[in-house]
Amino acid sequence: MYFIDVEGGQSTLVITPKGESILFDTGWPGSRDADRIAAVAKMAGLKRIDYVVVTHYHLDTWVGFPTWSSESLS
Q1: Which of 17, 18, 28, 72 could form a disulfide with 38 if both were Cys (CB 3.0 to 4.6 A apart)?
Q2: Which residues are registered as beta bridge partners of 8?
Q3: Is 72 inside a domain boundary?
Q4: How high is the pLDDT of residue 56?
Q5: What is the per-residue pLDDT for 74?
Q6: Quick check: is 22 in a domain?
Q7: What is the pLDDT of residue 54?
């Protein structure tokens, strides 16, 4: 489990025992939060994020989703 500082909040990356990845909340749009998420995912050895969960409807939890993609991990 990884906790990622995104401005004004936190993203959480969970890797299950089966190797599946779940990202909770995506941060703000733009590269700052997306780069932080991608760096942690790469450090964890991921090539993609399997699931994304948005915990509530605030800008800092879902607006970054269009910015962030698994292409950031290549």
Answers
A1: 72
A2: none
A3: no
A4: 73
A5: 59
A6: yes
A7: 85
Burial class from Cβ neighbours inside 10 Å (0-12, 13-18, 19+) for residue 65 reads middle
| 4 burial type by CB count under 10 A (0-12 exposed, 13-18 middle, 19+ buried) | buried
Q: How many domains does the chain have?
A: 1
Enumerate long-range contacts of 36-42, CB under 8 Å, 24 or more apart.
36/4, 36/5, 36/6, 36/11, 37/4, 37/6, 37/11, 37/13, 37/64, 37/68, 37/72, 38/68, 38/72, 38/73, 40/2, 40/4, 40/13, 41/13, 41/72, 41/73, 42/73
Pairwise CA distance, residues 74 & 71, whole Å? 5
- Return per-residue pLDDT of the chain as tens, 74 residues: 999 988 877 899 999 999 999 999 888 888 888 889 999 999 999 988 999 888 877 666 666 665 555 555 65
